[in-house]
Specification:
Radius of gyration: 20 Å
Largest sheet: none
Number of helices: 12
Number of strands: 0
Strand content: under 5%
Low-confidence stretches: 1-32
Structural class: mainly alpha
Helix content: 55-70%
Mean pLDDT: 89
């Protein structure tokens, strides 16, 4: 029951399975046997494991403090995330090929559909890692080519899902305010990831309008995601206050709120780094000032939410919170706060932000070890790919 990431429609906020019981119930038209049965219940939530692994490499490479062997570890984590992405893309392709009914059911399930945003973020995270540490292993040209493909594909998917999923929620899904969870943020935060990793490609573009256009496109995606997030956050907080805590296995999803917060701080700092080579006049300096003026207050709110989510997590753990794929929510969002704090450390020169980035990274490592260990155990034991009971 608690081995997948999203709640079902039938049980709303009281269950944490990754597929819909109502939409995936054995129907008269569904065949009794399926090819590749192990893939039937493989949902888009699995991309969160790729995101959580890739962010280790990206965050570790951005830290102000670099220990001996740290970059080698980051390279290994990037390689692991790249392999995991390839394997998962192939598996999800098999899911769509052999289990189209289940794939369509996922899109029509308001508890599962938001996880389609994870595909784009997995592509973007691995692409960013390719440029930051993967280039040491495969070379600059190969890394650039790979990131261009991953960034372009990930960005297109991010923008499509930022429209498609909310559209389905409006016209096809049946949702109530009491069902609001941080999972709803996943499709709208994906463009923010594009805005944060896009600056890695700007120096490789021809000087002049191509660089300026890319810079402003990243700021536009920053705006798309930020405004959508600001509309959804009141619903999420209001649901917690009015309806009480999330179900135990879904409690780690509270950390998803850190994603748009930390990623937006990362984005403005990354964009400020490359702005002088992309725009002229006072704008480059203004972008640098905006990185601090925006980043510091938002990082403050992120720490407030981190404290609240951590308190709720401790409460759930004491109440017997079982393992679920929701545990991966403790990785990527925290990693975005690491990169955001590291960016503020660069632009303010404050040691406090450097220490904050290091402390958050230590927590990220612990969360990854826990999530990865339990995931491997559940995967090889067959529980995570079993049909919901």
């Amino acid at each position: 029951m608690a081995t997948t990431l999203a709640p079902t429609r039938a049980t709303s906020t009281t269950s944490t399975t990754g597929t819909s019981r109502t939409t995936s119930t054995r129907s008269a038209t569904a065949p009794r046997t399926h090819k590749a049965p192990a893939l039937r219940h493989l949902g888009p939530n699995w991309y969160a494991s790729v995101m959580g692994t890739a962010i280790i490499a990206n965050a570790g490479a951005s830290l102000p403090y670099q220990l001996p062997g740290q970059r080698t570890v980051c390279q290994l984590m990037w390689a692991l995330s790249a392999v995991a992405l390839v394997v998962l893309l192939a598996a999800r392709g098999g899911h769509w090929l052999h289990h189209r009914d289940q794939a369509r059911a996922h899109l029509l399930d308001p508890a599962v559909a938001p996880f389609y945003g994870c595909l784009s973020m997995a592509l973007l995270a691995v692409g960013a890692g390719t440029m930051t540490v993967g280039r040491d292993l495969i070379g600059e040209r190969a890394a650039l080519a790979a990131d261009i493909v991953l960034f372009s594909t990930g960005t297109v998917i991010a923008l499509v899902m930022a429209v498609v999923v909310p559209y389905l929620m409006v016209v096809r899904h049946e949702v109530r305010a009491s069902q609001a969870t941080p999972v709803w943020l996943l499709p709208v935060v994906a463009p923010m990831v594009s805005a944060a990793v896009g600056p890695l490609l700007i120096p490789h573009l021809p000087a002049g309008q191509p660089r300026e256009a890319m810079l402003l496109a990243c700021y536009a995606m920053f705006g798309v995601s930020l405004l959508a997030t600001l509309m959804l956050l009141p619903l999420i907080l209001g649901r917690l206050i009015v309806s009480g805590p999330l179900p135990l296995a879904l409690t780690p999803a509270l950390f998803l709120v850190l994603g748009p917060l930390g990623q937006s701080v990362t984005a403005v700092n990354q964009l400020a780094d490359v702005a002088p080579g992309a725009v002229q006049g006072p704008y480059a300096g203004a972008f640098g000032a905006f990185a601090v003026v925006y980043g510091v207050p938002v990082m403050g709110f992120a720490l407030l939410w981190l404290a609240l989510a951590s308190a709720m997590l401790v409460r759930a753990a004491r109440a017997g919170m079982p393992f679920a794929m929701t545990w991966w929510a403790l990785t990527f969002p925290v990693g975005t706060c690491v990169t955001g704090a590291a960016g503020l450390a660069r632009h303010t020169g404050l040691t406090a932000f450097s220490w904050l980035a290091a402390a958050l990274f230590a927590g990220l490592l612990v969360a990854w070890l826990l999530a990865a260990g339990h995931t491997l155990r559940g995967l090889f034991g067959g529980r995570l790919l079993a049909a919901p009971r």
